[in-house]
Amino acid sequence: MKKFVVGLRGGIGTGKSSVSNIFESLGIDIADADVSSRNVMRQGGRVFTKVVDHFGKVILDSSGAINRSVLRKIVFSEPEEKTFLENQTVPAIIQDLMKTIQHASSEYVMLVLSTGIGKTSLMDLLLVVDAKKETQIERVMKRDMNSNEEVEAIISSQPSREDRLKENDDLILNEGSLADLERQVMPLHKKYLDLARAKELHG
Protein backbone atom coordinates (compact mmCIF):
# COMPACT_ATOMS: atom_id res chain seq x y z
CA MET A 1 0.00 0.00 0.00
CA LYS A 2 1.45 3.37 -1.06
CA LYS A 3 1.95 5.77 1.84
CA PHE A 4 0.08 9.07 2.06
CA VAL A 5 2.81 11.68 1.52
CA VAL A 6 2.62 15.34 2.50
CA GLY A 7 5.21 17.44 0.68
CA LEU A 8 6.76 20.37 2.56
CA ARG A 9 8.46 23.19 0.68
CA GLY A 10 9.67 26.67 1.54
CA GLY A 11 12.55 29.01 0.75
CA ILE A 12 15.71 29.19 2.83
CA GLY A 13 15.02 30.63 6.28
CA THR A 14 11.24 30.15 6.12
CA GLY A 15 11.33 27.50 8.84
CA LYS A 16 10.89 24.14 7.12
CA SER A 17 12.95 22.44 9.84
CA SER A 18 10.89 24.01 12.63
CA VAL A 19 7.67 22.84 10.95
CA SER A 20 8.93 19.32 10.24
CA ASN A 21 10.25 19.04 13.83
CA ILE A 22 6.74 19.72 15.15
CA PHE A 23 5.25 17.05 12.86
CA GLU A 24 8.02 14.66 13.96
CA SER A 25 7.20 15.35 17.63
CA LEU A 26 3.63 14.23 16.80
CA GLY A 27 4.99 10.85 15.66
CA ILE A 28 5.22 11.51 11.93
CA ASP A 29 8.14 10.05 9.98
CA ILE A 30 10.11 12.64 8.01
CA ALA A 31 11.87 12.09 4.69
CA ASP A 32 14.12 15.16 4.48
CA ALA A 33 16.13 16.01 1.36
CA ASP A 34 18.79 17.72 3.50
CA VAL A 35 19.25 14.55 5.56
CA SER A 36 19.35 12.43 2.39
CA SER A 37 21.87 14.87 0.92
CA ARG A 38 24.13 14.31 3.93
CA ASN A 39 23.64 10.55 3.60
CA VAL A 40 24.69 10.47 -0.06
CA MET A 41 27.62 12.88 0.53
CA ARG A 42 29.13 10.81 3.37
CA GLN A 43 32.90 10.56 3.41
CA GLY A 44 34.23 7.83 1.16
CA GLY A 45 30.98 7.31 -0.73
CA ARG A 46 30.65 7.37 -4.53
CA VAL A 47 29.01 10.83 -4.68
CA PHE A 48 31.45 12.26 -2.10
CA THR A 49 34.42 11.12 -4.22
CA LYS A 50 33.01 12.60 -7.45
CA VAL A 51 32.20 15.93 -5.78
CA VAL A 52 35.62 16.26 -4.09
CA ASP A 53 37.42 15.26 -7.31
CA HIS A 54 35.57 18.06 -9.09
CA PHE A 55 35.69 20.90 -6.54
CA GLY A 56 38.95 20.01 -4.79
CA LYS A 57 39.87 19.79 -1.12
CA VAL A 58 38.92 23.43 -0.57
CA ILE A 59 35.36 22.20 0.15
CA LEU A 60 36.47 19.89 2.99
CA ASP A 61 36.47 20.78 6.68
CA SER A 62 39.21 19.84 9.18
CA SER A 63 37.72 16.36 9.66
CA GLY A 64 37.75 15.64 5.91
CA ALA A 65 33.95 15.92 5.52
CA ILE A 66 32.29 18.28 3.03
CA ASN A 67 31.82 21.77 4.43
CA ARG A 68 28.30 22.47 3.20
CA SER A 69 28.42 26.24 3.68
CA VAL A 70 31.65 26.51 1.61
CA LEU A 71 30.16 24.31 -1.13
CA ARG A 72 26.91 26.32 -1.02
CA LYS A 73 28.78 29.59 -1.60
CA ILE A 74 30.54 28.13 -4.65
CA VAL A 75 27.42 26.68 -6.30
CA PHE A 76 25.24 29.70 -5.65
CA SER A 77 27.77 32.03 -7.29
CA GLU A 78 28.45 29.77 -10.29
CA PRO A 79 25.36 28.31 -12.04
CA GLU A 80 27.31 25.66 -14.00
CA GLU A 81 28.79 24.33 -10.74
CA LYS A 82 25.28 24.14 -9.27
CA THR A 83 24.21 22.08 -12.31
CA PHE A 84 27.17 19.74 -11.89
CA LEU A 85 26.40 19.21 -8.17
CA GLU A 86 22.71 18.57 -8.84
CA ASN A 87 23.52 16.03 -11.56
CA GLN A 88 25.73 14.13 -9.12
CA THR A 89 23.47 14.29 -6.09
CA VAL A 90 19.78 14.54 -7.06
CA PRO A 91 19.23 10.94 -8.36
CA ALA A 92 20.90 9.49 -5.25
CA ILE A 93 18.93 11.83 -2.95
CA ILE A 94 15.59 10.83 -4.56
CA GLN A 95 16.49 7.15 -4.13
CA ASP A 96 17.32 7.72 -0.46
CA LEU A 97 14.06 9.64 0.11
CA MET A 98 11.98 6.90 -1.51
CA LYS A 99 13.64 4.31 0.73
CA THR A 100 12.77 6.42 3.81
CA ILE A 101 9.13 6.76 2.65
CA GLN A 102 8.83 3.02 2.01
CA HIS A 103 10.15 2.16 5.48
CA ALA A 104 8.01 4.73 7.33
CA SER A 105 5.67 3.38 9.99
CA SER A 106 3.60 6.51 10.76
CA GLU A 107 0.13 6.95 9.24
CA TYR A 108 1.44 9.50 6.78
CA VAL A 109 4.93 10.69 5.84
CA MET A 110 6.27 14.22 5.42
CA LEU A 111 8.60 14.77 2.46
CA VAL A 112 10.75 17.88 3.02
CA LEU A 113 12.29 19.30 -0.15
CA SER A 114 14.80 22.14 -0.05
CA THR A 115 14.59 23.26 -3.68
CA GLY A 116 12.03 23.74 -6.42
CA ILE A 117 8.34 24.51 -6.43
CA GLY A 118 5.06 22.64 -6.78
CA LYS A 119 4.10 19.03 -6.28
CA THR A 120 6.12 16.03 -7.37
CA SER A 121 4.75 12.61 -8.26
CA LEU A 122 5.77 11.41 -4.78
CA MET A 123 3.34 13.80 -3.02
CA ASP A 124 -0.38 13.48 -2.33
CA LEU A 125 -0.56 17.14 -1.35
CA LEU A 126 1.75 20.08 -0.76
CA LEU A 127 2.23 22.23 2.33
CA VAL A 128 4.23 25.43 1.85
CA VAL A 129 5.84 27.32 4.73
CA ASP A 130 6.32 31.00 3.99
CA ALA A 131 7.97 34.06 5.55
CA LYS A 132 8.75 37.61 4.48
CA LYS A 133 12.07 38.11 2.69
CA GLU A 134 13.37 40.29 5.55
CA THR A 135 12.61 37.48 8.00
CA GLN A 136 14.38 34.93 5.80
CA ILE A 137 17.51 37.11 5.56
CA GLU A 138 17.59 37.76 9.31
CA ARG A 139 17.23 34.06 10.18
CA VAL A 140 19.87 32.81 7.73
CA MET A 141 22.39 35.50 8.68
CA LYS A 142 21.98 34.51 12.32
CA ARG A 143 22.05 30.76 11.65
CA ASP A 144 24.84 30.47 9.07
CA MET A 145 26.85 33.61 9.89
CA ASN A 146 26.45 34.71 6.26
CA SER A 147 26.47 38.32 5.12
CA ASN A 148 23.30 40.04 3.93
CA GLU A 149 24.62 39.92 0.35
CA GLU A 150 25.31 36.16 0.53
CA VAL A 151 21.79 35.44 1.78
CA GLU A 152 20.28 37.75 -0.86
CA ALA A 153 22.20 35.79 -3.54
CA ILE A 154 20.87 32.46 -2.24
CA ILE A 155 17.29 33.76 -2.11
CA SER A 156 17.50 35.23 -5.62
CA SER A 157 18.76 31.86 -6.96
CA GLN A 158 15.70 30.10 -5.53
CA PRO A 159 12.15 30.24 -6.96
CA SER A 160 10.38 33.49 -6.11
CA ARG A 161 7.97 33.76 -3.19
CA GLU A 162 5.13 34.38 -5.68
CA ASP A 163 5.92 31.17 -7.58
CA ARG A 164 6.11 29.15 -4.36
CA LEU A 165 2.67 30.32 -3.33
CA LYS A 166 1.01 29.45 -6.65
CA GLU A 167 0.67 25.71 -6.12
CA ASN A 168 -0.02 24.62 -2.58
CA ASP A 169 -2.80 22.78 -0.79
CA ASP A 170 -1.97 24.30 2.60
CA LEU A 171 0.07 27.28 3.75
CA ILE A 172 1.84 28.12 7.01
CA LEU A 173 3.02 31.68 7.59
CA ASN A 174 6.02 31.51 9.91
CA GLU A 175 6.43 35.03 11.28
CA GLY A 176 5.68 34.47 14.96
CA SER A 177 6.71 32.29 17.89
CA LEU A 178 7.14 28.51 18.04
CA ALA A 179 3.81 28.35 19.87
CA ASP A 180 2.18 30.16 16.94
CA LEU A 181 3.72 27.63 14.57
CA GLU A 182 2.39 24.75 16.68
CA ARG A 183 -1.10 26.28 16.60
CA GLN A 184 -0.99 26.25 12.80
CA VAL A 185 0.36 22.68 12.60
CA MET A 186 -2.21 20.95 14.85
CA PRO A 187 -5.30 21.26 12.58
CA LEU A 188 -3.17 20.28 9.57
CA HIS A 189 -1.93 17.17 11.39
CA LYS A 190 -5.54 16.15 12.08
CA LYS A 191 -6.47 16.79 8.45
CA TYR A 192 -3.56 14.68 7.15
CA LEU A 193 -4.38 11.82 9.51
CA ASP A 194 -7.99 11.83 8.23
CA LEU A 195 -6.83 11.89 4.59
CA ALA A 196 -4.28 9.11 5.17
CA ARG A 197 -6.91 6.92 6.87
CA ALA A 198 -9.38 7.56 4.05
CA LYS A 199 -6.74 6.61 1.47
CA GLU A 200 -5.97 3.39 3.36
CA LEU A 201 -9.66 2.57 3.60
CA HIS A 202 -10.52 3.26 -0.04
CA GLY A 203 -7.14 2.48 -1.59
Q: How would you characterize the overall build of this protein?
A:
Helix 2 (33-40) crosses helix 5 (79-102), helix 4 (68-77) crosses helix 5 and helix 6 packs across helix 7. This protein is globular. It folds into two domains: 1-28 and 106-203, Rossmann fold (3-Layer(aba) Sandwich), CATH 3.40.50; 37-96, no CATH class. The chain contains nine helices and five strands; from the N terminus they run E-H-E-H-H-H-H-E-E-H-H-H-E-H. The chain has a five-stranded parallel beta sheet, with helices on both faces. Helix content is 56%, strand content 12%. It has 203 residues and is α/β, with parallel strands linked by helices.
Instruction: Give a short account of the largest sheet.
Output: 5 strands, parallel
Task: Point out poorly predicted stretches.
Answer: none
Total number of distinct structural domains: 2
CATH fold group of the largest domain: Rossmann fold
Q: What's the overall geometry?
A: globular
Task: Round the Cα radius of gyration to an integer and report it.
Answer: 18 Å
User: What order do the SSEs take from the amino end to the carboxyl end, as H and E?
Assistant: EHEHHHHEEHHHEH
**The CATH homology group name of the largest domain:** P-loop containing nucleotide triphosphate hydrolases
What is the CATH level 1 assignment of the largest domain? Alpha Beta
- What is the CA–CA distance across the termini? 8 Å
Tally of helical segments? 9
Indicate the mean pLDDT.
89
Please give the CATH architecture of the largest domain. 3-Layer(aba) Sandwich
